Hints:
Elements: H1 6-9, E1 50-55, E2 62-70, E3 75-83, E4 89-98, E5 103-110, E6 115-123, E7 126-136, E8 139-150, E9 153-162, E10 165-179
Antiparallel strand pairs: 1-2, 1-10, 2-3, 3-4, 4-5, 5-6, 6-7, 7-8, 8-9, 9-10
Amino acid sequence: MWRALVPMVALSVLSWAGPLAAGEKSEAPTAPTAPAVEGPLAALAPLAGSCFLGTFADGKTRDFICYEWMWGGKFLRSRHRVIGGAGPYAGETVISYDAASGKLAFDYYNSAGGIVRGQFEVTADGFDFPAEKVQMQGAPAELRSTWRWTEGGYRAVSEKRVGDAWSPFMAIDFVRSGPASDWTEAE
C-alpha cells in the first residue's frame, strides 16, 4: 500500500478539519502564509518551514511531512514518514525547477528503495501531478494527483486509471502541525 502513495506523497506526500461549527463563516481556501520567495519555486513557499500531518481513510495511519528550503530557496526539501502503518515507511523529496520544460520537478527517494522522478504544474489553487505509471503490489498501475490549498493546509487527491476511466483512489487532508524544526528521524 505504501508504494501506491508515491505519486501523492512524493512531495509529500494528510487530517480532515471537519464541518463548520454553527455561526462560523466559510471563506475561500487560500494558501498558508510563508516567507516570500522569488523565482520559479515561489508557489511552494506556503509549504516551506512547516510540518503537516494527515490521516488516512482508516483513521489510524498518519503521514507526517516537513518542508524546508535548500540553498537559499533554489530547492525545496520534504521528508515524510508514515506512522501507525503495517511497517516503517519514509521518504525524502527534493523539488527543483526544470528550465528546459518550464515545470517543477521532483526526485523522491523512499525507505523501500524506490526512486520516483517526475514533474508537476502550478495551478491557481495548488498543484497538478500528471498521470504516472507505478508499481502497486507488483502490478503496473497509473495514478494522477492534485493538491489543493485548504484552510490551514492542503488536500492531496489521487485517482487510479481503471480501463479508460479515472476512479477515486485516495484523498488525504494535510493540516499544518508545526514548524519544520519539529522533524525527528524517529517515529
